[in-house]
Amino acid sequence: MGTLGGLVILCTGLWIATPHFVTASNLVNVVQQSTIIGVIAVGMTFVILTGGIDLSVGSIVALAGITFGTLVQANVPLPLAAAGALIAGTLCGAVNGALVTIGRLPPFIATLGMMSVARGIALMLSDGRPISGFPAGFRSLATGTVAGIPAPVIIMLALYGAAHFVLTRVRLGRYTYAIGGNEEATALSGVNVRAYKTIVYCISGFVSALTSLLLVARLNSAQPIAGISYELDAIAAVVIGGTSLLGGSGSVVGTLIGALIMSVLRNGLNLLGVSSYVQQVAIGTVIVVAVLVDMALRQRASLPTG
Amino acid sequence: MIRHYLRTTAVVLVAAVSVTGCNRGEKANRSGPTLALVVKTLNNAFFIEMEKGAKAAADSLGIQLVVQAPEREIDVEKQMEIVENLIERKVDVLLLVPSGSREIVPAIVKANAAKIPVVIVDTRVDAAALKSANARIATFIGSDNVDGGRIAGEFVAQKLGGKGKVAVLEGIPGHETGDSRLRGFRSAIAKYPGLTIVASQTANWERDQAFNVAQNILQSHPDIQAIFACNDVMALGAVEAIAAAGRTKDIAVVGFDAQDDARTAIRQGRMAATIAQNPHEMGSLAVISASKLLRNETIPAVQPVPIDLVK
Amino acid sequence: MTTTNGDTAAKTAILRMEGIRKEFPGVVALDGVDLDVRRGEVHVLLGENGAGKSTLMKILSGAYTKDAGRVWIDGMETDISGPRMARELGVGIIYQELTLIPELSAAENVYLGREPRRLRTVVDRSRMIADTRRILNDLGADVPPAAPTRTLSLAQRQLVEIAKALSLEPRILVMDEPTSALTTRETQSLFAAIRRLTARGVAIIYISHRLDEIFEIGDRVTVLRDGRHVSTHTVRSADRRELVRLMANRELDEGISGGTTVRGSELLRVENLTRQGALENVSFSVHAGEIVGIAGLLGAGRTELARVIFGADNADGGRIFVRGKLQNIKSPRDAVRLGIGFLTEDRKAQGLVLGRSVRDNIALPVLRRLSRLGVVRRSEEVALAESYVRDLRIRTPSTSQLALHLSGGNQQKVVLAKWLGCKADILFLDEPTRGIDVGAKQEIYALINKLAASGVGIVMISSELPEVVGLSDRVLVMRGGKIVGEFNRAEATQERLLACAVGA
Q1: Is residue B10 part of a domain?
Q2: pTM assigned to the model
């Protein structure tokens, strides 16, 4: 797989360039820093596999976080508040799904609308102000460790494991690939394409809400402006990971590697003290090069049909 | 398909109208003069505080006040549009916190042409750009960011006894506010040969990015003793990263803006200090100045608002 | 034929390919193939799918580069480096898959990328349309040059594709199954156009699976098998069975015949089915074990009928009874639950998920049955796929091969396996043998007979009259969205069906 090679090359380069990169604590940090985009990118992978796109994930992060913060401030018990946030995120996804399937809007348009609406509601609910101060018990979602591994990393890996299982072994996953590969043939095979597409957008909304909980726990603050441009980072992770924007092919394993590449890159540039201007150039270049290499490798591996 | 779009558009419009309809502030009956305050964003506690100060002053003076802002703090273009729309509405005085110190000049020129006095608040307009465009402002109200940065630098120097390693979290490069604070901070540190700035990286004003960048800086420079962040939002992100590394006791974090969250963190001993500008005072002074302008009174060209160190 | 006995000067070789070799990772697609084509002849390239015909033609048109071998055009050795160079050398190609842009008009498609211009800037629309009209008229094609291509029928689009190739005035023209979407009349006018071209000295390389056509239009025939050149003869000296044997290297009974039918209970009855602009009061029934053929010209409403019954399109009126019970079929899902299967006309666009494996495709309609608590049982899935790969003799290295990499006939078998796996007992087959080679066709016919014998009711839509006549127990003929004739096995002859379909 091309992307894994890319990650290895990147890590080797940084290993040589700076003594601070390969240390136990830094490696843990890198993985931890990939959790936010990594978790969102799971949902994004599902959506992109169906041939869709979800631009609203960043705004859903904000809305779900504010929902959680508001509920906590209103003394709602933590588990219920968290459930509230997850429900809010899933509902946003359901609306996206309905707009795409029943409303027949292109996913780009439907989720572009949701991007603005969810952000607006988050600002209205919070009056534009961050909500701060969460109980330590909740914060352990971000600060806790199990056998030295940070909790968010465990959550992310568990999520990837589950997503991989779903995509390869569960009916939902198989339909996800089939819809992206050929929606018409799938519908003509008697699959309820509308329902499964809606479920996929719900998954994206749900994991965005899960991300918001991780983010609130990490920053000890729920912010209405959280998650701006997360959608682009998540799409980048998915695409770097080798999933086709046309749908039908790709994997969450690739996405995980894609998310890691992004965070390794940012971490490395920080460690090297590279100026912020150069950082942007480097990140953009890596995205494009990664996809180019991946495409070239695929082309060589596949046989002609003629 | 087109019908679907039309229907969606209609729904969105209805929703938008009903939302703005219940928005505070804008009243339909307009009598007497109207002031407009345009800030960088209303997602930031600093500007919300400024809005409060301006509203309080406007209410006590019985003047209409409209407050508007783009959604994102760095969106200069959106701010220009807002200003242009307000000029069309013929507000009587424009109170403006520029999102970009050079970019906003054309909007000021337009206001001049429409004979609407412009009061600049908090962020200075680039003097050279102003002059070359032949634009005029009535007054500048604000505290000096360079000075604030210097105060933060002096505090760090004293706290560290003039010796040690310091890291900086910058705002979005090219922003006047952040650049000035940085300049002030660096000039103060430069006076102490024992102090070195070992890392200076941007976190784009955002909390989650500050968390990651601070974490990464701690990797390459585990021996830093202080972090200066160009605003409190980033400072609080750094505070969480330091806490996650279990280093709260060794590293002093200094922010800027004195937001409520930052004040709380200082009380809890998680953060060392922050620089208090007084946005409430800025807002109210801006409205009072505007009312003086309407009465043709003269006002000074620069009206400083005091800066305090909160620790 | 006009071209077979012309003067020898005009019969010099215009193209010679010698020892052409092409390898893809793990596969030798061409292994030392020779081909020589003369000015003004129709040279038929024959071979089963995967024999290397398309690869050879892609090398000629510059889409692939050869690994070894030499090419001469007009006696000059050339190294065709890309499509542009092939075009400059006078090689034109008409692909099997349509390459037209739906939103552009026929004329715009024909001149795409090289529009005639006025003053080097503005596209000269009227000239473009006039030129296109002239080419289409030469073809005897009834196609409006200015209408968007998406409004044209499949056959009309095929003609536009041919016009596009002709507009470049090629000296060598490759046609890959040009008649697969054409009606008999359109085929005849295409043949007339081909004869005019050959009379002008243009060499045609003609790829087709239809033996009838080969004997009608071809001058010489080259047979390829497994990437190797088998033989070249003049068509007049060739024997039908001999050609089939050379292609497949085995004797095949080219004749088609239905099995013995035991007509069972009624499975499907349709009464007065109507859909605005497509179907008008269509009524018929299908019994267990019966093969009902549906003949008719393109656009007669045959596919529309299947789509409406299958729930892919909505009916405006009429009733559908399945096993005697009135049913309201609103979606393909409902149809599948009722045991109705639909093998679509276009297997690539509607039948298969090409980027997924053979196994995934076969299991797609029955995943619900194959899974427990949503988790697909892999062993059952593999067993299902493997049993059909064995039963239907689907040629694939394994069930995890991507559907994309299978030949047309094997792809069609995979689609069939999908519906067999669902235990569908009412099967709609829309053009079940389109674009597949002779050997595979025979296997599909055998399968259809076997299914009917096992009690499945089959509705077969086909434009190949011999197939309809040979297999069907009963034939319905459609025209203009209506059923205009019904023939039993004894009555159904190709002539009668055709006469009925055209309304003569």
Answers
A1: no
A2: 0.74
